[in-house]
Amino acid sequence: MFIQLVVSGLLLGCIYSLISMGLSLIWGVMGIVNFAHGAFVMLAMYAAYYGDQLLRIDPLLFTPVAILLLFFLGVLVYQIIIQYVVDGPYVSRLLATFGLGFFLINMAQFLWSPNFRTIKESMVHGVWKIGSVMIELPKLASSLGSILVAALVFLFIRKTRTGQAIQAISADKMGAALMGINLKRIAAFSFGLGIACAGAAGSLLATFYYIFPDVASLFGLIALVAVALGGFGSVEGAFLGALILGLVETLGGYYVDPNWKYALMFLIYLGIVLIRPQGLLGRGKV
Amino acid sequence: MLEIVNLKAGYRGVPALQGVTLEVHKGEIVGIIGSNGAGKSTLIRAISGLIKPTEGTITFKGIRIDTLPSHEIVRLGIIQVPEGRHLFGKQTVEENLKLGAYLIKDEKKIKDHLEHVYSIFPILKERKKQRAETLSGGQQQMLAIGRGLMSNPELLIVDECSLGVAPIVVEEIFRILKTINAQGTTIMLVEQKVHEALELAHRAYVLQTGRVVMHGTGEELLKSELVQKAYLGI
């Protein structure tokens, strides 16, 4: 049973990782904690849902479309809102994304009702049995998809010119500006990229997860805790934090009480942050 | 080449520059000297577009640049090597250098510039795979200058390059700046090491409380009573 739980936890953790990576990226480039991050996951889930219902495209295959849609939505949100608060006081940066999150969740309730929806059957379905361990194939497909997208984003940041510029801005804004990097343009791109990560995760989650407006709060909070756990500004840290949360969720849910699983996740977070305020792989300053 | 007329700038209403007028000609090394808080950094921040002046104009090759964003100013050929270096610590030496050529699209040109910088600073070639933050202070300063040269600027502004660097390395860096200048790059040298700066500079301006109080050739200033009293402790 233990192995079963670990496997399920890691599968879940991979998807959380992708969401968290986007959050971490946005934080690194513009110093904004995107409290609306979960709302973008939710929007992508609805997009995938309607892709399935209206266009008969499986959410797995819909993922590239979700990535593009959410990327452009992210750039748009940057242009309309974020660019005006990014140099402002901390509180306005915080409230802007907080308000945006509220707005999107309520808009979703208005448009699509608070009811739970599910996608009947994804193209990948069934269970894979290895010994006593059962792996639900939809979850496996979504996790592998998440790892693939995360790896691509990671490579993009490490290997391309734009990726190098993103790293440079995260490390030293003034230094980057003096090299001729257009800060606003890279910030808009990074915001789009971060939201695209949330979008990919949302579409992949739609294959097996309940789709409802308030799912945004859950994923937003998980991503936030994962990033804080791993260390703000560290994409690798966000990945690690998210895997830990996935494990705590399944192991805690089984060994303690399913009702307590989220409480446990936040408790672990509090514990680690009390000992290491900068997070597991954080860079010193908080 | 660079003309600054009656420049005023400040932070949150506190004036740091109170009408600075100066010019830099092509091929020169121009020193800007003065003590802490004299407005040297504010001046070059304004040139690089990091802050917007409240009054006055900055013109480069006949183009008004005081209203342009930083990346446009870089594109015109002005590069600043900032005080404190502002390197990208987690990225490698070579990645830092390549970011210096961010606005150049031509891969071959970037490679040529990289080889050129490596020939000036061979130590950077040895350390090219290392993270910038692992270099010593002097090497970091060389990297900062090398990164500044990667775009082959027409005007290189070097701010306090001697800070936190061993004296013997400062000498080396100053020697290298002289070579770079001889190869055709105009240099604006902002320094607290007044003596060394004046020896290197063709001309220099002395800033005090946001105003140019004196200017002349390096030699003239070295001999002047004001400079000797205020900065050289003679």
Q: Can you give a write-up of this model?
A:
The complex is a heterodimer of chains A (286) and B (234). Chain A is mainly α and 286 residues long. Chain A has a single domain, classed as Orthogonal Bundle (ABC transporter involved in vitamin B12 uptake, BtuC), CATH 1.10.3470. Chain A contains 11 helices and 2 strands, in the order ααααββααααααα. Chain B has 234 residues and is an alpha/beta fold. Chain B is built from 10 helices and 10 strands. In chain B, the strands form 2 sheets. Chain B has a 6-stranded mixed sheet with strand order 6-7-8-3-9-10, sandwiched between helices. Chain B has a 4-stranded antiparallel sheet with strand order 2-1-4-5, with helices on one face. The longest helix of chain B is centred in the C-terminal third of the chain and has 16 residues. The radius of gyration of chain B is 17 Å and the shape is globular. The N and C termini of chain B lie far apart (35 Å). The mean pLDDT of chain B is 92. Classes of the chains: A mainly alpha (286), B alpha/beta (234). Chains A and B meet through helix 6 and helix 7 of A and helix 2 and helix 3 of B.
